[in-house]
Every structure is written in structure tokens, then in C-alpha cells.
Write a structure and sequence with these properties.
- The complex is a heterodimer of chains A (324) and B (309).
- With 324 residues, chain A is of the alpha/beta class.
- Chain A has two domains: 6-231, Rossmann fold (3-Layer(aba) Sandwich); 253-262 and 270-323, no CATH class.
- Helix content of chain A is 35%, strand content 22%.
- In chain A, a hairpin with a 2-residue loop joins strand 9 (226-231) and strand 10 (234-240).
- In chain A, helix 3 (111-122) packs across helix 4.
- In chain B, helix 5 packs across helix 8 (171-199), helix 5 (87-122) packs antiparallel against helix 10 and helix 12 runs antiparallel to helix 13.
- Chain B has 14 helices and no strands.
- Chain B has a domain at 95-303: MetI-like fold (Orthogonal Bundle), CATH 1.10.3720.10.
- The relative contact order of chain B is 0.14.
- Classes of the chains: A alpha/beta (324), B mainly alpha (309).
- The interface between A and B is medium-sized, with 30 and 26 residues.
- Bound molecules: adenosine-5'-diphosphate and magnesium ion (MG).
- Magnesium ion binds next to helix 1 of chain A.
- Chain A: One of its GO terms (biological process) is peptide transport.
- Chain A: Pfam families: ABC_tran (PF00005), oligo_HPY (PF08352).
- Chain A: This is Peptide ABC transporter ATP-binding protein.
- Chain A: InterPro entries: AAA+_ATPase (IPR003593), ABC_Ni/Peptide_Import (IPR050388), ABC_transporter-like_ATP-bd (IPR003439), ABC_transporter-like_CS (IPR017871), Oligopep_ABC_C (IPR013563), P-loop_NTPase (IPR027417).
């Protein structure tokens, strides 16, 4: 395979709340190759959004801070960039869409103005050409009456339409990487399918790599080439979509798969995962999943498993390897 | 937008009637015999009877109200008991100075209030914020009579830069408008700060940053206009208060405005004047409310479109 376009190495991000440090992401490794869609899946609170905001370097406004690791974009560490260099990357080389289409657009500015602004921030083109390009982008994401919509305000559009606008805006400078943080979670199922279609089209036409964040494995199966499963600020399992769905190794992944309603599901699968994601203070010392794991062993409580083979963070897997 | 404006203006008509009724009732709501009140404590029975007749107080209430409204429509607000002059003339005369002082004060207040508010929201919890909020708290808590007297002491008596009072050229406006504007500036500053800090947490601000915009553009294009929406309402309200004339500031600076007229007529129990000032102040608030709503619609497209159509 070619060089990764984006590679996150040993990323650590934490928040300072009332003088205490809360580690939200602890040592993530993740690569994204050109034209690839990688899913990042995990329950709410596992650190998916924090990971994406760390890549975009948009943690400033929260008391969040990347405390270690590197984020290489085309071989250069974004974490070492100056503010000016970071701004040149944002929206131009790497862009992002968010979970809440209803609130992600500025309510007092016309759609056209918001699109043109994104285009002209990074490209030296005239207002007229920028408008033309904006309309072209709206057409690409399947918005009917694109010219009329340029003069409308966000509240005049449905959630699905707004998310299309967000995609058009994010794609308007032809970025190499698109980060989509739960782009369809707030939408109903039919609209969700349409938005996924638009994103796949975008990938096909522009060869954009997409980091697709969701808590819904069903969406992953539909969209992604590879998957990374996140839990408590770490990746607990990763592999191709085929590997993860056909042969999940980590009990957490199995649990997540078990919680997808599926006809003829195997008997030995979990119905859903017991309990809840532990808060940072309550995280077990060893494997972070130990307190919810149906296969937990004494050793799991004491020592955190490494990512065996770069794929799976579970002591059971080590035993399998040894016996094989 | 036009439709919305027309709707709003038509909606004012019933309110105007209620206000006229309240102003009319003012004299009658004061406990005791209005004729006796107007005539004063040492009036003879005859004098009281004269007054009763002169002001139509011997007529039934509904008839009095009809007459009152009839006169109102002809621009006749009655005569001052003290000076005997038409009340309308007195109000017109006093309105100009108060309006001009209000405008000057609002100019200060908006300039400093918005500037300080935006700076402290952007630099929150850093020294510019602490300094700004120190001024804002001072502005709210320093009584205007004290501020006014201090300014006269420093700038008029000691330095001799500005006159101690009275109305005239632009130099006579500086001290009273600053005294009056300081409190409003402080209120606007604090309001702008909290409004902008709320807006800066919004998702679309993050969207702006994710496009690669500079912080200046994010604040200038995306945050400030949204943050101003509630500030407009609050400033309008303050404007309304100032337009009623500040009794304290006008008295300190011998300003011939509505505030001083009000305090003088209250002291002299000049009921027709007090009654008409109530009417005027209500009308002012109503109009300002309308203006604020229209401005609100202009700033907030959601209102403009949904309620307008
Ligand atoms: N602004 C913040 N302040 C403090 N802690 C935060 C903040 N944002 C996120 N966190 C912490 O990071 C963890 C991961 O959050 P997040 O990345 O939003 O989860 P996900 O997107 O997977 O649902 C949360 O459990 C929370 O403890
Ligand atoms: Mg999230």
C-alpha cells in the first residue's frame, strides 16, 4: 500500500477540569490511506470526538490539550505547526463535518455566504467564481434548486439538507481528508442513507480519505473499508470491515456487534454490553473493559493488555496466539 | 418584513387606548377628591367648586373620558396648573433637550459598552477581561449623582474645561451625557460579554474555525452579530429609560429636560403635566419597543421570515 495521508501516532489528549487532568485519549494509533474510509466506532464518551478535534487542533476553546504523540499529515506533524499553518490546513487539506447539522451553520448568514467564505479563505478567486463553485458543490451533494438555496438561511432547510450543505462546504476546497463526526446520528434513517450515499460519491469523485466516526456498527458495515473500535480513550481492536464483522476478537467488539439486531444471530453472541462506560476515575487499573467483560480473568485487572499484533487489545487473544 | 412591521404597528392601537385610559385614570386614582388635590390644601370651598367646573370634574366619569380623548386627538393636553401654559407646548420644549442628551449618552454607552463587552468575552479570564469588568462593575455601582458631582468638581471647577450645567453648545453635553451613559455602558458591557461568551460555545463557531478562519473573522463575522441580538433588546430598554429624562442627572446639570419637568411638576402637584408625562413616557416605550422588534427581525432572519410571512 502507498504512504498514509494521515497518521496518528501515540496521541494523548487530556482536559483540565477544576485543576484536575482528565485523560480523554490515551495513546491512539490510527492511519488513513488515500481514498480510504476508516470507521472509528465506540460508545458515547469513548473519546472519538476528542480524537477528531485533536487532529483538527480545535481543542483550544475547551480546556483540552494534546499532551503527546504526533499527527502526521503527508509526513508533517500538524502538532508542530504554527497557528497560521494550522489555519491553512483546516478546511483546505483536512475538513470536518459535525453531528449536529441543525446548529452547525450560522443562523444569521445566508448559505451562499457561508460557502463562499470557506472557498475564498483558501483560494484566490473572485466572488463570482466562488459563487459558481459553491453552486457546483451544492449540485454535487444532490441539493435541488441550488441557486435559490444560496440565498436562503439555514433555518429554511431540513436537517438532511443542512448536512448536505455542510458536506458541500467541507468538500469545497477539495480536501485530502474529511473527518465526519457522527454525521448521520441526528438524522432519521432514510435521510441517513442519502447522506451516506453523498459521502461515498464524494470519496469516489475526489479520492478523499474519510475518517468516519459513529457509534453505529451498522453504518460502519455500509460505509467503511477498515474499522477501529475505541473504548475509554484507546483503540481496543482494529481491522478490515470483513475481519471485524466476521471474526471479532475483542469482547467489547463482540458486545457492540451483539447489540445490532440481526436476524439469525449466533447464540453465543452477547445481546448487549452490560453496564456503562466507566468515568475516568472509575477506569479499572488493568484492561479498561474488565469491569464489563463477560470473559474477565484475574490478570485483566492487573495489567493492561497491549495491542497484540497491532490489532486487538485483549489478554484472551494472547492466549490464542500462544496455543496456535 | 413590511408585513411584519404593519402587523406590529396595528397591534399597538389597542395598547394606546389602554395607556390613554391609565393616564386619564391617574388623577382619579389618587385617593381623595381630585378638585381638592388640584386646588391645594388651603383653598376655599368656592375655589374648589371653580376648579371642579373648570376641569369638568363635575361631569360623569365616562363623559370626562370622552372629553379627554376628544381633546387628546386635537393635541390638547390641557393647561399647567402652575404656569397656565398648554402642557403640549411644555412637553415639546422639554423633549428636545432630553432626546439629545439621550442620544449622546447612548452613543457613549454603545461605543464603550460593546467594545468592552467584546474584548472581555474574547479575552475572558485574562487581564483585559478583569480590567473591563472592574470598570463595568464600577459603572453599575457608582451612583450617578456622585459621578456627576465628581465630574463637575474635576472637569468644571478644577480644570475649567466644561460648564457646570445648563444647555448650549456641544461642550455642555459632555459631562451630563457621560454621567448618564456610564451606567448604561456598564450594563451593555456585561450583557455583551455574557451573550458573546454563550455564542462562542455554539457549534457554528467551531464550524467557522474548522474552515480555517482567523479568530478575528470568526468573532467578527460569526459571533458578534449573533451575540448582538439580545443586546439590542436590552439597549432599547435602556434607551427608553433615558428618554423619560433622568431626574438626577438633569437636576445636577440644570438640564431643561423632561426629567426635571417631572420632578418639578410632582413637587408642585401639577397634575395635568404629570398625567401627560405618563402618556408620553408610555408612548416612547411603545415606539422603542417597536423599533427594537424591527431591528431584532433585521438581525435574526428566523424571525423575519417566519413571523413576516
Ligand atoms: N470539553 C470537555 N471538558 C472536559 N472533558 C471532556 C470535554 N470533552 C470531552 N471530554 C472528556 O472526553 C471523553 C471523551 O469524549 P468524546 O470524545 O466527546 O466522546 P465520544 O465522541 O466518543 O462520545 C468524555 O468522557 C469526557 O470525559
Ligand atoms: Mg462525540
Amino acid at each position: 500500500m502507498s504512504e498514509p495521508i494521515l497518521s496518528i501516532n501515540q496521541l494523548y489528549t487530556s482536559f483540565r477540569v477544576d485543576g484536575e487532568t482528565i485523560p480523554a485519549v490515551e495513546g491512539i494509533d490510527l492511519s488513513l490511506y488515500p481514498g480510504e474510509i476508516v470507521g472509528l466506532v465506540g460508545e458515547s464518551g469513548s473519546g472519538k470526538s476528542v480524537t477528531s478535534l485533536s487532529v483538527m487542533q480545535l481543542l483550544d476553546e475547551t480546556p483540552g490539550e494534546v499532551t503527546g504523540g504526533e499527527v502526521l499529515f503527508q509526513g508533517q506533524d500538524l502538532l508542530k505547526f504554527t497557528d497560521r499553518q494550522k489555519r491553512k490546513v483546516r478546511g483546505n487539506d483536512i475538513s470536518m463535518i459535525f453531528q449536529e447539522p441543525m446548529t452547525s451553520l450560522n443562523p444569521v448568514l445566508k448559505i451562499g455566504k457561508q460557502l463562499v467564505e470557506a472557498i475564498r479563505e483558501h483560494q484566490r478567486i473572485s466572488q463570482t467564481d466562488a459563487r459558481k463553485h459553491a453552486i457546483h458543490m451544492l449540485n454535487q451533494v444532490g441539493i435541488p434548486r441550488s441557486e435559490a438555496i444560496m440565498n436562503e438561511y439555514p433555518h429554511q432547510l431540513s436537517g438532511g439538507m443542512r448536512q448536505r450543505v455542510m458536506i458541500a462546504m467541507a468538500m469545497s476546497c477539495d480536501p485530502k481528508v474529511l473527518i465526519a463526526d457522527e454525521p448521520t446520528t441526528a438524522l432519521d434513517v432514510t435521510i441517513q442513507a442519502q447522506i451516506l450515499d453523498v459521502m461515498r460519491n464524494m470519496r469516489d469523485q475526489h479520492n478523499t480519505s474519510i475518517l468516519f466516526i459513529t457509534h453505529d456498527l451498522g453504518v460502519i458495515a455500509e460505509m467503511c473499508d477498515r474499522v477501529a473500535v475505541m473504548y475509554s480513550g484507546r483503540i481496543v481492536e482494529q481491522g478490515s470491515v470483513y475481519e471485524i464483522f466476521e471474526n471479532p476478537k475483542h469482547p467489547y467488539t463482540k458486545g457492540l456487534l451483539g447489540s445490532i439486531p440481526k436476524l439469525g444471530a449466533k447464540e453465543d453472541r452477547l445481546d448487549s454490553i452490560q453496564g456503562q462506560v466507566p468515568t475516568v476515575e472509575d477506569r479499572p487499573k488493568g484492561c479498561k473493559f474488565a469491569n464489563r467483560c463477560p470473559f474477565v480473568m484475574d490478570h485483566c485487572w492487573e495489567e493492561e493488555p497491549p495491542l497484540f499484533d497491532g490489532k486487538n487489545r485483549c489478554w484472551l487473544h494472547e492466549r490464542e496466539e500462544a496455543t496456535e | 418584513m413590511l408585513k411584519y412591521s404593519v402587523k406590529r404597528i396595528l397591534g399597538m392601537i389597542p395598547l394606546l387606548f389602554v395607556i390613554s385610559l391609565i393616564a386619564f385614570m391617574f388623577v382619579h386614582l389618587i385617593p381623595g377628591d381630585p378638585a381638592r388635590l388640584i386646588a391645594g390644601t388651603d383653598a376655599t370651598i368656592e375655589e374648589i367648586e371653580n376648579i371642579r367646573e373648570k376641569y369638568g370634574l363635575d361631569q360623569p366619569l365616562y363623559k370626562q373620558y370622552m372629553d379627554y380623548m376628544g381633546n387628546l386627538f386635537q393635541g390638547d393636553l390641557g393647561q399647567s396648573i402652575v404656569t397656565g401654559r398648554p402642557v403640549l407646548d411644555m412637553l415639546v420644549e422639554r423633549f428636545g433637550p432630553t432626546l439629545r442628551l439621550t442620544l449622546a449618552s447612548m452613543a457613549w454607552a454603545l461605543l464603550f459598552g460593546l467594545l468592552i463587552g467584546v474584548i472581555s468575552a474574547v479575552k475572558r479570564n485574562k487581564w483585559p477581561d478583569h480590567l473591563s469588568m472592574f470598570f463595568a462593575v464600577s459603572g453599575v455601582s457608582i451612583p450617578s449623582f456622585w459621578l456627576g458631582l465628581m465630574m463637575i468638581q474635576l472637569f468644571s471647577v478644577q480644570l475649567g474645561w466644561f460648564p457646570t450645567g445648563g444647555i448650549g453648545g456641544i461642550e455642555t453635553y459632555i459631562l451630563p451625557s457621560f454621567t448618564l451613559g456610564a451606567g448604561v455602558a456598564a450594563i451593555i458591557a456585561r450583557f455583551t460579554r455574557s451573550s458573546l461568551m454563550d455564542v462562542l460555545k455554539e457549534d457554528y463557531i467551531r464550524t467557522g474555525r474548522s474552515k480555517g478562519l482567523t479568530e478575528f473573522k470568526v468573532i467578527n463575522r460569526h459571533a458578534v452579530r449573533n451575540a448582538l441580538i439580545p443586546v439590542v433588546t436590552m439597549s432599547g430598554l435602556q434607551f427608553g429609560f433615558l428618554l423619560s429624562g433622568s431626574i438626577i442627572t438633569e437636576t445636577i446639570f440644570s438640564w431643561p429636560g423632561l426629567g426635571r419637568l417631572l420632578i418639578n411638576s410632582i413637587t408642585a402637584r401639577d397634575y395635568p403635566v404629570i398625567q401627560s408625562e405618563i402618556l408620553l413616557f408610555s408612548l416612547e416605550f411603545l415606539l422603542i419597543n417597536l423599533l427594537v422588534d424591527l431591528l431584532y427581525g433585521f438581525l435574526n432572519p428566523k424571525i423575519r421570515y417566519e413571523e413576516g410571512s
